[in-house]
Amino acid sequence: MTRPLPRVLSVFVLLAMLLTAFPSRAAALTEPTLQATAAYLLDPATGMVLYQKNADEKRYPASTTKVMTALVTLDKIKNLDEKVTVTQEDFTGVQADSSKAGFVVGEEVPIIDLLYGLLLPSGNEAANTLARHVGGSIEGFVKLMNERAQQLGCTNTHFANPNGLHNADHYTTAHDLALIASEAMKNETFALIADTAQKTLSPTNKLAEHGGKPLKVFTTNMLIFSRNDPNYYSYAKGIKTGHTSEAGYCLVSTAERRGSSLIAVVLGTPKPAGASQPLSFAESKTLYEWGFSNFDTRTLIEKGTTTEEIPIRLSTDADHIVPQVGQTLQAIVPKDIDLDKLVMTKHLPEDLCAPVKAGQVIGTMDVSYNGVKYGTVDLVAMQNVSLSKVLYYADKLNNFFRSTLFKLIVVVLALLLIVYILYIVLLGRRRRKRRDRMMRSKQTRYRRYK
User: Fold this and answer.
1) pLDDT digit string (tens) for 275-301?
2) Is residue 303 classed as helix, strand or coil in its secondary structure?
3) Cα Rg for the chain, rounded, in angstroms?
4) Can you tell me whether residue 186 is helix, strand or coil?
5) Least confident among 87-91, 260-264, 330-334
6) Are 115 and 80 a contacting pair, CB within 8 Å?
7) 241 close to 280: Cβ distance less than 8 angstroms
8) Is 122 a catalytic residue?
9) What is the value of pTM for the model shown?
10) Which of 149, 280, 307, 421 could form a disulfide with 269 if both were Cys (CB 3.0 to 4.6 A apart)?
11) Whether 285 contacts 235, CB under 8 Å
């Protein structure tokens, strides 16, 4: 006859069975496994990094370079209807089998159409035309690209051309590309173009070369190309593909779901034998599904939330004020976050001096969870507090009496008093000596006379 398990052991067995039957939340947060050599998933609104793989290792970006080309162009050119003539120079280095938009030498093309030709079919001639026009030369434009990269905090990026054709000195990282894409998506024109699947361009002076019809361009980004394509992702909003034999297949993209936006970068993904498309699209979708499934946009603290009171001096209106949060803080956070365990680290002075105006920033507060900082909010005054001039001047006088200057004056006066006393003493002694000499002289004369 077998003996029953001890009660404590039975409890452990039951717990083990339950854990096996119902996987923990931590299991859901297991990061996806990608074949990309480098990858990055970013919440651009907060700068929160949800996923990274070799994110700061230098990689060849191929045509994802054109995100920066478009950004610099939009930075510098305000009239996008301005026409630029395509020249033979714009085809320098553009091989017959490399990606082109279809523009021809002598064609007068509006800048907006050159941007469509740049970002949708990844036209290398469009990149060169824009660079020559905006920068005065390819070299001049590349300098602008590198300067813009530095401004954005890209620490491992160096551009050698505007199109992404292979160059050993042309490199970036998944992290830096996410920064560039995040900045580019702030531009409404860029965001519109990047999210366009196909576009019929304006008629030009070279209609005959295009079969008598305006040029029509199509995106290479299968995330947005067609709903019938298995790589289509309904939440995707662009941005740019890239490929060279040295770089592999690359994709910089963005997606929006239930008000949350993410930017994904995958570099160096392979294309399986027999596959119609590389894994860059599938792996980007994997990143998005993982991110949207395990993270959510939550309000961490509301505008108007109050904190502890702070003493205020030099006013008869009040002896303290209660700061409040100046703006609502939202962030993409793990879905199972316990908002009651948020850590609020306040940076406030020990006290304040009047006057204080309602809305005046008097400090900040960092909001974090499990050691991860999700943002910083301003702490502002809720009401006006006026200055009492009587208390102000009394405080000035009190501060003066406690100041180093006052102490120095007291020391100087004390030294002067000591010097004066010594002077008086020495002067008295001299006078007594002089008087004594005079008395002795009189006595001597008196004795002589007598």
Assistant:
1) 999 999 999 999 999 999 999 888 999
2) coil
3) 38
4) coil
5) 330-334
6) yes
7) yes
8) yes
9) 0.76
10) 280
11) no
Task: Identify the CA nearest to 180 among candidates 194, 167, 166.
Answer: 194
- The b-or-e profile of 272-281 (16+ CB within 10 A means b, else e) is eeeeeebbbb
Give the CA count within 13 Å in the CB-facing half-sphere of 268.
Answer: 19
Nearest to 344 by CA among 309, 313, 302, 301: 301
What's the rounded Cα separation, in Å, for the pair 188 and 71?
A: 11
Name the catalytic one among 53, 99, 100, 122: 122
Strand arrangement, sheet containing 310-313: 320-321, 310-313, 352-353
Q: Which one is catalytic: 53, 66, 100, 237? A: 66
Which residue matches tokens 């074949």?
35
Q: In terms of C-beta density within 10 A (0-12 exposed, 13-18 middle, 19 or more buried), how is residue 43 classed?
A: buried
DSSP 224-278: HH-TTSTT--TTEEEEEEEEETTTEEEEEEEEEETTEEEEEEEEEE---TT-SS-
Residue 262: both structure tokens together: 């993410």
66 is catalytic: yes
